[in-house]
Amino acid sequence: MSKNFDVVVIGGGPGGYIAAIRAAQLGFNTACIDEWKNEKGGPAPGGTCTNVGCIPSKALLQSSEHYEHASHGFAEHGIEVKGLGLNLEKMLGRKNTVVKQNNDGILYLFKKNKVTFFHGRGSFTKGDANGYEIKVAGAAEESITAKHVIIATGSNARALPGVPFDEQLILSNTGALAITEVPKKLGVIGAGVIGLEMGSVWRRLGAEVTVLEALPAFLGAVDEQIAKEAQKLLTKQGLNVSLGVKIGEIKAGKKSVTVEYTDAKGDAQKGEFDKLIVSIGRTPNTIGLNAEGVGLKLDERGFIAVDGDCKTNLPNVWAVGDVVRGPMLAHKAEEEGVAVAERIAGQHGHVNFNTIPWVIYTSPEIAWVGKTEQQLKADGVQYKAGTFPFLANGRARALGDTSGMVKFLADAKTDEILGVHIVGPMASELISEAVVAMEFRASSEDIARICHAHPSLSEATKEAALAVDKRSLNF
């Protein structure tokens, strides 16, 4: 006998589990279906983000940063470390523990909010405006029905044509997080978020890392001034980045991978690596949904087609997160999940794509929100810019990390903040002030007039806002 629900969410990643919880809070009888498994075959909700993305990568970034501090940075603070060793098995074990804590936390939240959880793969069987029948293929096959369906099935790593992931030599983000021995030489194809973060982890632990990027500019989506500063700092650390390359043949041997490529000058090159991480983007995951069986429309790129409210072409079927248009960011998926649950309840859920923050968790961190300087120039917008270096920030000096800067871009006439860009310590935390300010349509003068604690890194934000009017006080 089929179980009936008001709302069924297919996918338990950031968009899915948050949508399910919000729907339950709004009084709907809600279920969430998710097929991720842990090592023992049990449920592991949280999607790519929790299992092989945001959470484990940050755990390894933190551990590897501690190791680098101990091997290179502590001496400056008068801390002498002798006999430093690396227990990679324990480091990976800690990462796995952090992941499991998040998995268990989501299962607890389901229980707390009375969300029914189904462990398996959800797919449409049939349906119309009156309701949808969904099959759950798990340990035991079940059939459930729902008035509303929210699809939050996420994305998969994109492989190079003809070069499948084996997760032993040719790695996606999944394999990059589970290398059991530090490679002597690591190749990374793609200088995006995943490539730079994973490259940074293994460089800190001792690998010689070469990053190959097809685009001619480093981090082309980032404000150009910030991107150049970040490239300079990461290169100084030892990350070898080659831009404008054209990848040729890739051959996997028994213990190494050979990559043939043409560099920016047009010269033929060959690199041999112990491991190769391929991070060239992600593709929407609609496998097994039976979209065609119910007439669910996909766009030309394979994403589920939705309108501005995340409605699909099917009545009462919605889609959020990586499987639809927009940035593939966990927090974007969460916001869409909440908004859809509220729209189902007749409320006015809202997602402002203009104030979604971006973060790259390298060291220094890179974070931004709003428009870049090159975008404003292309759009013909008159603007003012103000920058402030962490070199002139007292807290940064005390931390021993004065790399980078904060940059403000404001409308030349109204002074409304149009974009804020940061490269430097704790940029991921500092960017939140800019997001709040932009949500309230604040001016750079508003931030310049707000009292910031001293000494704090956030003072660099205030000083950059002051610099828009050319009146910074400490530089």
TrEMBL record:
Q: Which cofactor does it need?
A: FAD
Q: What is its main location?
A: cytoplasm
Locate the coiled-coil region(s) and give their ranges. none
Q: Which reaction does it catalyse?
A: N(6)-[(R)-dihydrolipoyl]-L-lysyl-[protein] + NAD(+) = N(6)-[(R)-lipoyl]-L-lysyl-[protein] + NADH + H(+)
* Keywords annotated in UniProt: Cytoplasm, FAD, Flavoprotein, NAD, Oxidoreductase, Redox-active center
Q: What sequence ranges are listed for the domain FAD/NAD(P)-binding?
A: 5-337
The record's subcellular locations are: Cytoplasm
Q: Which InterPro entries match?
A: Class-I_Pyr_Nuc-Dis_Oxidored, FAD/NAD-bd_sf, FAD/NAD-binding_dom, FAD/NAD-linked_Rdtase_dimer_sf, Lipoamide_DH, Pyr_nuc-diS_OxRdtase, Pyr_nucl-diS_OxRdtase_dimer
Q: What is its EC number?
A: 1.8.1.4
Q: Which residues form the Pyridine nucleotide-disulphide oxidoreductase dimerisation domain?
A: 356-465
Which molecular function GO terms apply here?
A: dihydrolipoyl dehydrogenase (NADH) activity
Cofactor binding note of this UniProt entry = Binds 1 FAD per subunit.
Any extra remark in the record?
The active site is a redox-active disulfide bond.
Q: Which family does it belong to?
A: Belongs to the class-I pyridine nucleotide-disulfide oxidoreductase family.
Name the record gives this protein: Dihydrolipoyl dehydrogenase
Q: What is the native source organism of this protein?
A: Herbaspirillum robiniae
The record lists the lineage as:
Bacteria, Pseudomonadati, Pseudomonadota, Betaproteobacteria, Burkholderiales
